[in-house]
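tool_call predict_complex ligand=acetyl coenzyme *A
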Amino acid sequence: MTVTKGLEGIVATTSSVSSIIDGVLTYRGYDIDDLAENASYEEVVYLLWNGKLPNREELNGLLKDLSDNASIPQQVVDLLRSFPKEANSMAALRSAVSALALFDAEAHDFDIDTNKRIAIRLQAKLPTIVAAFARIRQGLEPVAPKAGAKVAENFLYMLTGKEPDAVAIEALDKALVLHADHELNASTFAARVTVATLSDMYSGVTSAIGALRGPLHGGANEAVMAMLEDIGSMENVEAYVQDKLDKKEKIMGFGHRVYKNGDPRAKHLQKMSRELGKLTGDMKWYEMSIQIEDIVTGQKGLKPNVDFYSASVYTALEIPRDLFTPIFAISRVSGWTAHILEQYENNRLIRPRAEYVGPTNQKVGPIEQRK
Ligand code: ACO
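tool_result ok
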């Protein structure tokens, strides 16, 4: 047996949802740079699910479906109220999404049309759950989804209870486009492993949320902001980063399993971070991030990944730090569900092997004689 630690370089499936070839990320063959500049998040969702960009009528249909399905069952709101106020928001999201299945009569049906309807429900309801929990833990009432609003606008509206401004909507929309899918990343793989047992879509997405939470994956965006806050100001950057590098500790938001010459999404987020910093008049986090990048790239050759500048982008949008990873989930659920649909279409159980390295020839002795 040859063990490939972390499955690095292993091609575990074919997929036509997204690709990373020579450092270029595409969704269904469209370059992420093109999509980031020219497509809305809902157009990308349609693309991921259907393999084509929507025409006007198809897009309007999806917008209506998402809007019609954005409310969450009262029982799920009550469940969110029952969670500790200090609960981790990804743990709250994971538990609430798992609970959603209990209130969906179709949750265990397996035909393609049902699963497409469930994908719509999940995409529509995740932002509502995240916003509702964020308000409940502050002692505020959840805000009902705004009819007809797109995902980015609706999320900001439900979070704050106020009409968000156009710049914030546009920035969040672009961030959602950039996070929507990413080939066989850890959370997508977790989703595919789960549904490859012919388990249901809610189980697949619940698994994926659990995998996304970790700081080596989606949780890195929160860890980046924690680091920036820890550093505090420009004059501390060099000593802080140098100390970490000397101790061989990881700098969150840098490095990637697949991209060794830079993550194509990072430049868009860097630009957004700079522009939002200028607009808000607070360039501190952006400037600190640039300095960190100079040091880490200069010394280690490691480039920022999608999570690095998203931290300062979300902070400029006044989003609390522990909602960064849930926002990643709000977007990535489109990719997860696209991959789940693809897995069901041509399924085979995913069951690799492990090389056994434990003790052998053990014998069960009487309990009194055991140490
Ligand atoms: N800071 C410092 N050193 C690093 C970093 C980093 N962020 N990333 C990798 N390295 C070093 C490792 O210490 C290791 O050095 P060594 O060979 O001297 O031991 C070498 O680079 C290879 O690193 P691995 O962890 O083996 O690389 P792997 O492909 O397994 O990991 C990962 C990729 C998990 C993304 C890694 O770069 C990392 O931990 N980065 C920080 C966390 C992060 O930003 N995660 C988000 C990734 S993007 C996403 O999931 C949305």
